[in-house]
Design goal:
Strand order of the largest sheet: 1-4-5
Radius of gyration: 19 Å
Shape: elongated
Order of helices and strands: EHHEEEEH
Number of domains: 1
Structural class: alpha+beta
Number of strands: 5
Largest sheet: 3 strands, antiparallel
Helix content: 55-70%
Length: about 110
Amino acid sequence: MLIWSGRGILSLFVFIGSIIIFSLVLPQSLEADYKIVFSFITTALFSWFMGKRWNASEEHEILDETTGKKVVFREMSHSFFWIKMQYWGLISGVLGLSLFATIAFE
């Protein structure tokens, strides 16, 4: 059973990739929690903007010559766990800001 459609899996790959990159690039003195916050925010920005762009509903109407009826084609939806990619941006942003708030106000 597929849990993603289109490019929706990229939200997960961006999150994992950004954790790896931030772990290598940011100084070791910085807490690991902040690196996860940066990863959530990076994933949120990527998922929101690319999800909005890729999930823009474009319809193509073609006239079937044999039947004379219009056929409407819609482009594929990009989702992960049946949630559209741009909404993963919102979820990641809320999780990142929540984690930041809990770390900052300890």
